[in-house]
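Q: Predict the bound structure with glutamic acid.
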Amino acid sequence: MLEASHRYFHRAADLLDLDPQLRLILLTPNRVMKVELAFEGADGKIIRHTGFRVQHNNRRGPYKGGLRFHPAMDEEHATALANLMTWKTAVVGVPFGGAKGGIDCDPKTMDPIDVNTMTRLFVGQLKEVIGPMIDVPAPDMNTDGSVMAWIMDEYSKYHGFSPAVVTGKPLHLFGSEGREEATGRGVAHLVVAALAEDGRKPDGIKVAIQGFGNVGTFAALTLSALGAKIVAVGDYFGGVARPDGLDVAALVEWTREHRTVKGFAEAEEIEPSAVLTADCDVLIPAAIEDVLTEENAAEVRATLIVEAANAPTTPEADEILLKRGVKIIPDILANAGGVTVSYFEWAQNIQQYRWDLERVRLELEKTMHRAYAEVRAMARQHRTDMRTAAFALGIQRVGRAAVSRAQIRRAIAL
Ligand code: GLU
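A: Predicted complex:
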C-alpha cells in the first residue's frame, strides 16, 4: 500500500517535473510514533497493543487524519494513509496537513471498558504531540464519536477545555451538524459533478456500493434521494442485488439491526465480491484497500468509479481500468468530504460558534464541486487522468507552501 501511494506520487511528480530533493522532503513523514499500550482488562487479564501516529506533513496547517482501530494497523499502513491525508487536505483546500494513526486491535471483540482505557492510555502517550494547532485526530475504521469524546476528555485533563483537539465528536459534545454523513454526501456530490460533465443526471443511474458502513450508507441514501437506483450492495458477510433498485431506507434499517446486508429479504443474494463486477453505471468501493486488483479490473462493468474508501485500487488495476476508458475519481478527492466537515467542526470549536445543518451541507457541496473542477482543470492542462491530476494538485499546493516556508532560494518551479 505504501508502495502504491509512492507510485502515484511519482507519476504526478514526474508530470510537474518536481525536484528530486523536494520529492524526498514531501514523501518522508515528519514524525513517526509507536507506543506500547498495556493494562489490566476488565476481566483481570493483561491486554497489550501497539499504538501508531504518523505525522506526515504540516506545511499547510496542523496535522489532520483519522485513528483506525484494526488488527492490521501498523507503521506501514499508518504511513501510507498519512501520506494520502496530506494530498487530500490540499486537494479540497482545507488548512491542514496529513497524519494517520491507530491501534492494532479489534475493538468489536473487546469490552467497551477496555477500549476506553486503551484510548486514554494512547492519548496519555500522545498528549504533547497532538493539539488543536498541532495535530487533530478524527474517526476512521472502527472508531466513532464515543472514542473521540474520550480523546477530548483525556486531552482536556492536561491542557484545559479543548474540543478542537479532535473532530467527529458527538453532536451534543461540540461535534458538528452533518459530520457523520459528510463523507458519503461528498461522494454523492462527486457522482453528480462527474455525470453533469457528460450532460447526465443521477436520475435512473445504476449504482453498486461495496461496503455498507458509515460512508456507503450515506452515499446510498443521498444518491437514492437524487433518483439513482442502488442496484447492488455488499459488505464483509454478504451481498444483495436488485436490478430496479434496492429499498435503501429498508436496507439501512435491516443493517442497523443485523450488522450486515446479508439476509435482507427484498433482494437477490449475491457474493460480496460480485458487487464489484455488478451491472451498473457507477461503482463505489466504500470499504477497505486493495479490492480492485488485476484479477477483477477487466470485469468491472461501471464506467465511473468513485473511490469512497482509501486506496481501494491497486496500481495494476488502475492501469487496466484507465486503458479501458473507465473514469476514476480517486480517494484523495472522492472521500475528502469527511475531512472537509472535520474542518468546519474544528473552525466552530475554535470560534465557540455553531453552524446549522443547512450551512454545513451547502459549504460541503461548494467545496466538493470546486475541488472537482480544479482537479479536472489540472487533468485537462496535463492531459492526464483524475488520480494523477489530484496528486499533482495536492503536491503543488503542499510543495509551494514547503518552499515558501523554508525560504529555499533556489527557484523550484511548481
Ligand atoms: N478518517 C477520515 C479520512 O480518511 C477523516 C479524517 C479527518 O476527518 O480528519 O479522510
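A: The radius of gyration is 21 Å.
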